[in-house]
Specification:
It is a single chain. The chain is mainly α. The chain has two domains: 8-296, Fic-like fold; 321-392, Winged helix-like DNA-binding domain superfamily/Winged helix DNA-binding domain (Arc Repressor Mutant, subunit A, Orthogonal Bundle). The chain is 57% helix and 6% strand. Strands 1-2 form a two-stranded antiparallel sheet. β1 (8-17) and β2 form a beta hairpin. α1 (42-64) runs parallel beside α12, α12 (282-319) packs antiparallel against α16 and α14 packs across α15 (354-366). The radius of gyration is 23 Å and the shape is globular.
């Protein structure tokens, strides 16, 4: 399967299966990334240019808004839902927006909301000036696995061998490693060294030689090929696309949802990643990647504009009412940034007493701006129907 143009080497691995006994096989260890872009076709360069233009339009739109960070959490929940679905943890989008971050009702929602917490942690670290490092990626993976069965085996580069997927024609009774679709690097020192090479590479801007879109694609491929953790590699790898573009300065406000587009094309996405490892087909993968970034930027911009319109409409609704307190306008901001919430969350975010927060929420319910999610729930949660309609559309 692996040709002479493969950007890596096959290394021998061995182990013991508790049912079948000892086995030997080969794992793929990718070469470190270079300082030049792969050779790309004119069609792919055009796709890269279009992706850059779409990101620039998204960034320009964000800069024109009074507070673009209001839209970060809704975008993160959408990304969390889609990127987790790619890995088998699924919940309907409306349920994700309505979920209680302090008490998720299902294990899938725990995974999805862990992603949101992890993403905010990473954005915070980069915005404080921290650089990409093995320790940062390990911390992010630990946050992603919090409260899940693999939590104790997380937060560090894996030591053991893992395998990815299963070939259609694989013997279901044979060794799992022999039926795997892809076998990434063995765990341990060499894997950690290659991961350190990657984060060192990501810290350097090479815009004169490698377009940032191409650099993000290369880093994404490398991370997925290394598969450095016991679990969560797909979700962290797709998250790093946005974090990397943010760190490179291509995306000032990291509100970008990349996974919905890739989720709809998961077979092509996985095939393109494998095509780089097996045959060095960078052009195919980067073309697909650039199309995904362009579509993600356009979709995110459309939703941002729709939310901004709703935000302005709700603020005008408050101004036209008898409410005059600034806290009412602040609650509108909060309701746009947080698709569902409790009174306690309002109390904490707005710095008001519980009684004042409860009264304020009730006033916006009376105005029809807010609505209670489930009157029978043990803890009342509220949402803005106009905001939820935009978030769950299409």
């Amino acid at each position: 399967m692996f040709g002479s143009d493969s950007p890596g080497v096959l290394v021998p691995i061995h182990g013991t299966d508790p049912r079948l006994g000892e086995w030997t096989h080969r794992a793929f260890l990718p070469d470190p990334l270079g300082d030049e872009a792969p050779e790309l076709s004119p069609k792919t360069y055009m796709a890269v240019a279009n992706a850059r233009a779409a990101l620039a339009a998204l960034d320009a739109t964000a800069k024109q808004l009074p507070n673009p960070t209001l839209f970060r959490l809704p975008a993160l929940r959408r990304e969390a839902q889609s990127t987790s679905a790619l890995e088998g943890a699924y919940a309907p989008l409306a349920a994700v927006y309505a979920a209680d971050e302090d008490d998720p009702s299902t294990s899938d929602l725990v995974e999805i909301l862990n992603y949101v917490a992890m993403a905010n942690l990473g954005f915070g670290r980069i915005e404080l000036g921290q650089s990409f490092s093995v320790s940062l990626l390990s911390e992010l993976q630990g946050a992603l696995m919090r409260g899940l069965p693999l939590e104790n085996a997380s937060g560090h580069v894996r030591e053991q061998q893992v395998v990815i997927g299963r070939r259609e024609n694989a013997n279901p009774l044979g060794f799992p490693v022999e039926g795997a679709r892809f076998v990434p690097s063995p765990g341990g020192f060499e894997l950690e060294t290659r991961l350190r090479d990657l984060v060192d590479w990501m810290r350097v801007a090479r815009s004169e030689r490698i377009d940032p879109i191409v650099a993000a694609a290369m880093a994404h491929y490398q991370f997925e090929a290394l598969h450095p953790f016991t679990d969560g590699n797909g979700r962290i790898g797709r998250y790093l696309i946005v974090l990397h573009l943010h760190a490179l300065g291509v995306l000032d406000e990291p509100t970008l949802t990349v996974s919905p587009w890739f989720e709809e094309r998961r077979a092509a996405y996985y095939d393109a990643l494998l095509g780089v490892s097996a045959r060095g087909h960078w052009d195919v993968f980067i073309w697909l990647f650039a199309h995904g970034i362009r579509a993600a930027a356009e979709s995110t911009r459309s939703q941002m504009l729709a939310l901004a319109e709703v935000h302005a409409e709700l603020k005008e609704h408050v101004r036209a009412s008898s409410l005059r307190a600034d806290s009412a306008q602040a609650l509108i901001d909060f309701a746009v940034a947080n698709p569902s919430f409790t009174v306690r969350r309002v109390e904490s975010a707005l710095g008001l007493s519980y009684g004042r927060s409860n009264k304020l929420v009730g006033q916006l319910v009376e105005l029809g701006i807010l609505r209670m999610l489930d009157a029978d729930a043990h803890q009342r949660r509220f949402y803005a129907p106009l905001v939820m309609r935009v978030l769950t559309a299409g």
